[in-house]
């Protein structure tokens, strides 16, 4: 591909084009490019486009680890690398992408600890790390992501207790944590999430009693707690919630 005739290009959509192999290095010459969509192809990675604000490389058959050079894309607002075969750990350098509003790394082969430095991405409103193979627990630093409205970490092999700092995410509307090995009790701080609509804690190893204070989540419509190890009975005031599907 020859992009030399388009030096001022700011938006490029090559999704669903049956492309394969390496991303053409000539794309790196498009220094004004802001939006690049290469989703649903069979391509390998590139991180030289420093003007990008949106990068979608979902379903691109990417493999291998993410280069720490991703930290050069400091103008990124939206990044999706979902549904590839990316492995290794998430580079802590991703914490430098301070302008990110949406980050989707779901459906890959990530391992290791979730970097606490992701808690520095305080502009995030959407974060999806689901369907990976992490070790360790949810970083307490995620409590700094106070602009989040949607946090998804399903089937991530997470262990340990829920950090009470999650109660600081007062803009959160959806919290998806099903299918992990999260243990301990539900922290009372979760009742600070007054905007929460959906809470998915099913299929974990949570114990203790179900906090009656969950009934204070007046906007809650979806609550899944099944397949855990709770003690006692369902608090009667939970029945006051207008929960529906």
Short description:
It is found in: Membrane. The protein is mostly beta strands and 245 residues long.
Overview of this protein structure:
Its EC number is 2.7.11.1. It is an enzyme of class 2 (transferase). It is a single-pass type I membrane protein. It catalyses: L-threonyl-[protein] + ATP = O-phospho-L-threonyl-[protein] + ADP + H(+); L-seryl-[protein] + ATP = O-phospho-L-seryl-[protein] + ADP + H(+). Keywords: ATP-binding, Glycoprotein, Kinase, Leucine-rich repeat, Membrane, Nucleotide-binding, Receptor, Repeat, Serine/threonine-protein kinase, Signal, Transferase. The protein has 245 residues and is an all-beta fold. It has a domain of 168 residues: Alpha-Beta Horseshoe (Leucine-rich repeat, LRR (right-handed beta-alpha superhelix)). It is built from no helices and 19 strands. The protein has a 10-stranded parallel beta sheet, with no helix packed on it. A 4-stranded parallel beta sheet has the order 6-8-10-12, with no helix packed on it. The chain has a 3-stranded parallel beta sheet with strand order 14-16-18, with no helix packed on it. It is elongated. The chain starts with 10 loop residues before the first strand and ends in a 21-residue tail after the last strand. The mean pLDDT is 90.
